[in-house]
């Protein structure tokens, strides 16, 4: 597993050397854009929107558009000067309960591993302390020239760091159109059946039971086409039922998802 960040966790006056490793990976199947006639990949070149010339990487700089068509250039040194000297350590600022953080704030997950044997004792101490406290640490970290808010928690035999969105990066739900028309006085009978449907669908979360059906179908399609096998055409789109009566639809849903009772053979009584 490749290290993507190296630094330390500041826990009070204790500095714990650590490494970060990306905890998740994108399994999307990437399709290339091809020229239909040549069946070759399409190349894209960087061109200037003013003169139309192709621009090499060494001639490209960064800038901010402060007005339409008006830019102010900002170089790498100026960006680096904005970072504090401690940009290679994670500073723990608070401890909170996990339930107090709404999932909308979570951005990306990283495994935290010890950097060397000298900091192993402090690493183990922090992991155990966080686990025993039943809380998570709120910290700040700079990754790729961007400061992130982060949550650090105990995870199996190590720790996990999850970057968080700042409050001003999370949009207000009040901006969603149509929410003002949502009813709050739902019919009692409909609510009862809806709750019954939820109860019947409730289970223990086991992530291994879920799979990306579309990706698996796409991978199978690619495998069949590479091997020259004929591709089966879908017969047609199955129209979704038009729900007119909400109560009837809920009752039908409860009936469809109702778990089947196990039938056991009755033993005959022996005299």
Automatic annotation (TrEMBL):
InterPro entries: DNA_bd_Ku70/Ku80, Prok_Ku, SPOC-like_C_dom_sf. Keywords: DNA damage, DNA recombination, DNA repair, DNA-binding. It holds the Pfam family Ku. Residues 52-181 form the Ku domain. PANTHER family: NON-HOMOLOGOUS END JOINING PROTEIN KU. Belongs to the prokaryotic Ku family. With LigD forms a non-homologous end joining (NHEJ) DNA repair enzyme, which repairs dsDNA breaks with reduced fidelity. Binds linear dsDNA with 5'- and 3'- overhangs but not closed circular dsDNA nor ssDNA. Recruits and stimulates the ligase activity of LigD. Homodimer. Interacts with LigD. This is Non-homologous end joining protein Ku. The gene is ku.
